[in-house]
Write a structure and sequence with these properties.
heterodimer; A: about 300 residues; mainly alpha; MetI-like fold; globular; disordered C terminus; B: about 270 residues; about 80% helix; about 0% strand
Amino acid sequence: MEAHPANLPAPTASRAGLRLPGVGTGIGGGMVMLYLSLIVLLPLAAVFSEAFSLGIGHFWDQVTSPLALKSLKLTVACSLIVVVINGIFGTILAWLLVRDQFPGKSIINAVIDLPFALPTIVASLTLLTLFGTDSPLGIDIAFTRAAVVVALCFVTLPFVVRAVQPLLLEMDREMEAAAASLGAGNFTIFRRIIFPNLLPGLAAGIALAFARALGEFGSVLLFAGGLPDTTVSSVFIRNQVESDNLVGASAVSVVLLVASLLLLGCVSLIQRWAIRHDRSSSEFIPTLAKDVSGDGGL
Amino acid sequence: MSANPASRWGLRFLGLGYLTLLLLIPLVMIFYKTFEDGIGPPIDAITTPDGLHALKLSVLMVVIAVPLNTIFGIGCALLLVRHKSKLNPLIDAIINLPFAVSPVVIGLSLYLLYGTDGWFAFLAEEGIKILFSVPGMVLASIFVSLPFVVRETVPVLQEIGTDQEQAASTLGANGWQTFWKVTLPSIRWGVAYGVVLTTARVLGEFGAVTIVSGSISGQTQTLPLFVEKQYANFNSTGAYGASLVLALLALVTLLAMNLLKRKEDA
């Protein structure tokens, strides 16, 4: 979610003659790589190794087996619906939090992060209670595809809000005022001025939400269950592990993993683009001013 | 853009209605369902030996995984921000991996690595049990919560710059002195925010832990696993009781996040 460290001008220790523990000695870097290898890289390498252990043909057979393919299609379709819903409602919520004033706003702002804090299995249980057979609202969608969508909406809600909110806060309202004074209506102002400015955040938020939705497990488990029509890929993988088809589980895992990595790559590209875009326009004058004041050379 | 009253109320209705239906009512629902039959049954359900064991095990996960990821997180952030290296983009990409990987895939990865045919199968042969026991669950917890402290510390480190650290070095402070007296006090709220997120994630993790633990009652069940098992055994009072404990912890997390954000901005 944060900007890529490599993109930002970071004062380096070595150049400045700065002394900090582990920095510049090589030991720190070695320890970081060792920790990452043991905790993250080796286990993930084991998944790739297992997926291709019987050859690439077998890998492909596993991925395209009817049940695996069905789960992948369901996962992608539901995730797409979810990011559209949360793209719209997330933008509306971000707008309300930045531009509107209403009682309880700070509480609402805090509650947005609830899906990040609430364990997914608890989310699943309470959604089941609210939208299940004994629903107090009379809406029973438990163990259907709609339940998959609602569960994924719940867990991915914060992404778009939190990605769009800072952009709305920073936005220069004079542009909107200028457009309004030139006779543009609200919809035109939104379409021509606000939306293009929010686009990088919206796209990043949607990509993050999509990546999260692809792998989501706990929140779907109790609410949507593992019926033939509601088995998302993560539930499929769990089932394969339980029936000891580790190659099949790993093959689908590799597909999910690669898809998520591509999405995170997109987020990184969007952020890089946004930073460059930003620098070429708004930071042009401040940079000049800095040079004039003799404070040049960051 | 000055919205007219009609569209303003329309947006409020849509946005807040969505939030109420999706987040607020479910949250209230946990409280209502837990205490439907009074305060006694849920308390009885979570004070059973299995319930208490699950609570203890969840705390144990936090006690081991959070300090490890905090120390690693601060060190890694220092390295990424203060030390330009060709490895940095690679390290940065690896740090993000746990966000990209499904918890079930994380569970599977450990299951494969430490399982009977895995590369680390020799550990089990030596009598060091990783899978279906606490060490495997700890590894899963560390994996899923790895990025938070790094992600929260990096921007703060970038923001504070190196002026004060350089001054300390000029005045003869060694690396550790500079770190304890200058760097850490300046980044403490960012680190604390990361620690809160790490703790919440470790407490709530379900998918990865369920695969490596086998979810054996009274032995390898954390609170989230206990919730699922209780529900599967048609003991919904137990499931809601444990859910309430987790939901209260989530609310404490939200509160801490907001207080820390305010401190950070101040």
